[in-house]
From TrEMBL, chain A:
It holds the Pfam family PP-binding. It comes from Thioalkalivibrio halophilus. InterPro entries: ACP-like_sf, PP-bd_ACP. This is Acyl carrier protein. It comes from the Bacteria. Transmembrane segments: none annotated. Residues 5-87 form the Carrier domain.
UniProtKB/TrEMBL annotation, chain B:
It comes from Thioalkalivibrio halophilus. This is AMP-dependent synthetase. Pfam families: AMP-binding. InterPro entries: AMP-bd_C_sf, AMP-dep_synth/lig_dom, ANL_N_sf, ATP-dep_AMP-bd_enzyme. GO terms for molecular function: ligase activity. Keywords: Ligase. Residues 121-301 form the AMP-dependent synthetase/ligase domain.
Amino acid sequence: MGAQTAFEQEVARLIVDSLNLEETAPEDIEPEAPLFREGLGLDSIDALELALAIGRAYGVQIRSDDEDNLRIFASLRALSEHIEANRTSS
Amino acid sequence: MSEAAALACPLLTDADTPLARVGGRPVSRAAWLADVRELAARLPEAPAAFNLCEDRYRFSVAFGAILLRGQMNLLPPARGRTVLGEIARGYPEAVALVDSCEEDFPLHTLAVSARGDAGGGNEDRPADIPMIPRDRTAILGFSSGSTGTPTAHPRRWGDLVAVTKQALQRLKLDRTPGHTLVATVPPQHMYGLESTVLPALLGPNTLLAERPFYPADVHAALERETRPVLISTPFHLGTCLRSGQSAPSAPRRILSATAPLEASTAKELEAHFGAPVNEIYGCTEAGAIASRRTVREHHWTPYPGVHVRADGDASGLALAHGPQHREPVPLPDCIEVAEDGRFRMTGRLADMLNIAGKRASLVELNRHLQTLPGVEDGVFIPPADSSDAAGIARLAALVVAPELSETDILEQLAERLDPAFLPRPLVRVDNLPRSTTGKLPRQALLELLASHGEPV
């Protein structure tokens, strides 16, 4: 299991808090594992909630017509990289 | 009116406005009809076909082609393979029309590639618009029935035409130059069908092929399209509000359905978008039957020609009856009717859940859980407050299944249930706190959840 970077830890906390995943510890989210279907088993309701939380926390607006959209939500690592590359607030 | 005209209605209303916008490009009614004819010629002979296209333009082409071939559109509520399999058992010859073929899909598929550029130039008027018999069953909508298999709700073409005319008139969507219908709801959903595909086919409106999903998409589409109408749900509209994005240039109107909108949220939405918010009342069983302007009306006004009676049927359910119903249809809510015929909801039936705008029967969910192979006992626990615009509370579940893991159980449930109903958390226990009569008191369930470290 790959270790989470400091920023991945922060995003993992955001995921758990914004989706009320009380049964998941942020540090248990595998950085490379899929967030949807398998792994955390998130669905479209979660995708909206998560996009909202990311917009609030980092000023990054998730768009579904972004060609990278599938890749962005592929894993904690991909999502964290996308946020870091596009964030407007800290 | 000639006799033939009385017995059949056109598949399409001629209008100057495009039928659709696909990838930013207008698609005329003539071009749409050319796509419909081309697809209809490729459909295998069968009584019905699944219409699973997510692209709203392709859905509309598939819808028209299926009708033109005298077949029924099968519109499943979810794409879980168990649900599709159960419906397919009744229609073994039905193919599934999809955007693109997926490997390992449980049905025979036929990809719909129509993009509105096959023929029928954009300057042409549609020629020889097909007439569809009024009493032909156009769609079968499905709700999760009480028997374990999805229950089919047939709607005839004449029924769909009638409700669309009522809605166009009530919502003032019958006037040229028409509106662009921007929708976050899928076209398979009865509300999505009645509020996007049909108003474009039968009125001077233009449907947007794409389905904006994230708040940024919704705002961009409203900014981009001409005279947009936003067709959405309390859940989705709530996320648009909470996203904190600046308001786009005002949509002409906002429509909401699938769950009641709080008056305060409606007020915020009207202020944010600068547009009136109209709510539509409907259900899979009856389709849309009423509307209200939520900021100033608590009561729903039935569509023209529709009547609602609260004294109801033998089981005490309120009944709706309009020209689009063969017989009065029981409604899945507790309803009180005022003297002027308007009505208000006084609550949901005890068994009905609404999670993010999706309805399900608790009895039915429990039956699914309890009949999973390897599950000895189990129960879903609804949240105290199951849905409001400020975030979605999920169901919890307690399950007795000594040989299964949480993941095994969730995987099996995912094949049967809409993702909105998957329990979170799902806790495995040694047994359920059943009383001597077999009942499960809510308090005992909450205590058991709490003892496993789950907040309640």
